[in-house]
Amino acid sequence: MAKILIVTGDAAESLEVMYPYQRLLEEGYEVDIAAPARKQLRFVVHDFEPGYDTYTEKPGYTWPADLAFSEVDPGDYVAVVIPGGRAPEYLRNDPELRKILKAFFDSDKPVAQICHGPLLTAAVGSLEGRRVTAYPALELDMQAAGATFQDSAAVVDGLLVSSRAWPDHPTWMREFLKILRTKG
């Protein structure tokens, strides 16, 4: 059974972890969740409410991390998923995670990223010259990383599939699964 890695941490968007996790299990993949440490992760729920200029954040699900980043062997996995939420803001500083992500790009393996997840791929220099989408507020960050930003439900650039946020899940996962069926 092929294995897929999800890399995340506390304050990840609940839906952006759980939807791909369950969808990939449904497709028959084994899925591991890796975080800075093996622990019970605390996810959040981002939503939009009238009168707010940006999204709001509430406590979300908790879920155990299967592995610490230091325990991950990227060679064991056919692809990686990078959820959003606030987690990527601090995870991009983790040298173990940067090594993991670089290994996926160096090995030309499928990568799915959503929302703020592209902050991680930017941190390893893997967006230069690519077309991506992300949460719209990250447009300037994506451009600074050398990417061409497209405001779309899903953008496919080679084996990299990007999406804006959880409302785009069906389009994002449909495109990622197409790649996995041929490459993963």
Automatic annotation (TrEMBL):
Transmembrane segments: none annotated. Residues 3-178 form the DJ-1/PfpI domain. CDD domains: GATase1_PfpI_1. It comes from the Bacteria. It holds the Pfam family DJ-1_PfpI. InterPro entries: C56_PfpI-like, Class_I_gatase-like, DJ-1/PfpI. Belongs to the peptidase C56 family. This is DJ-1/PfpI family protein. It comes from Streptomyces litmocidini.
